[in-house]
Specification:
With 324 residues, this protein is of the alpha/beta class. The protein has helices spanning 61-78, 92-102, 125-137, 220-226, 245-256, 282-288, 298-309, 315-323, and strands at residues 3-9, 16-18, 25-27, 44-50, 82-86, 109-112, 146-150, 153-156, 161-162, 171-172, 180-182, 187-189, 208-212, 232-237, 261-265, 291-292. It binds aspartic acid. Aspartic acid (ASP) binds next to loops. Residues 12-13, 55-56, 88-90, 113-115 line the site of aspartic acid (ASP).
Amino acid sequence: MKKKIAVFHTGGTIAMKQDSETGAVTPQEENPLLDVNQDLFQNVELIVENILNLPSPHITEQEMLRLQKAISEKIATNHIDGVVITHGTDTLEETAYFLDLTIEHNIPIVITGAMRSSNELGSDGLHNYITAIRVALSDEAKNVGVMVVLNDEIHAARNVTKTHTSNVATFQSPQFGPIGIVTKNEVLIFQKLLRHEFYNIHQVTKNVVLLTAHAGMDGLIFDALERSPIHGLVIEGLGQGNLPPKAVVGLKNLLGKGIPVILVSRCLNGVTEGVYGYEGGGKHLEELGVIFSNGLSGQKARLKLMVALEISSQHDELEKIFAN
Ligand code: ASP
């Protein structure tokens, strides 16, 4: 029997072409991937939906939610065997992680993109698309959470990040590496995450801001945030989770207003924890009520806080959620 794969195209470079005169890479009316020869997939039925046609810097949490609802509905009603999403690479890891947190499933869900548009020399779009379909068809790839597949590597949505502005090997999982690879003949998964989180949400309504700490950071931005309608803040702190002392003054005011603050590190590896007892050190921040996150990047912690705040704004609940 033919396996059914639901494909959702959302845009990005994989769906774009380069203009031969100006060199500009732009979206197209017709997705070039729709020309893919179906004979390539003899035992597969592709159910294709052009749900969006956006460059990924135009994707917001509302598009992620729309995609999540469309995928969940397809899983519930169409007896599909796997899902493939094509997406721009700039925010691909964010959509992947959002879907990972909010879709309950055991079939393979794969997201892919391209670094070179469809008519550029060495274009990687078609190869990545076909590879993603192969992963979605594989029994090995069941029950591993949402996967990011590019350049013959399979990465867990939680850990992967775009590391290079233009190289086709841009997607990497610092500290952990890929969970698998795709060879000419096989899809091989070598490791799986020990835990999978699922949050049953139907809307995304909270405004969460992401800041990066730096040497000499002061209270200016915190003062501006205190006057803004925000529901949460994520800070990419220094090292193991520290902030410059002048930043702490403004931070205290936000905490005093009941705004949850999540601290991740601007380092690519490791987790944040309360180690230093000086002004602005992790121990001090912990005492002030800052919540530490377990190794997530800033952009992913921001999405997780948005999702979590749909469930609870209680400090203890948020602390439990971010301990995962
Ligand atoms: N700027 C493009 C986008 O994210 C990059 C890509 O798709 O690779 O839509």
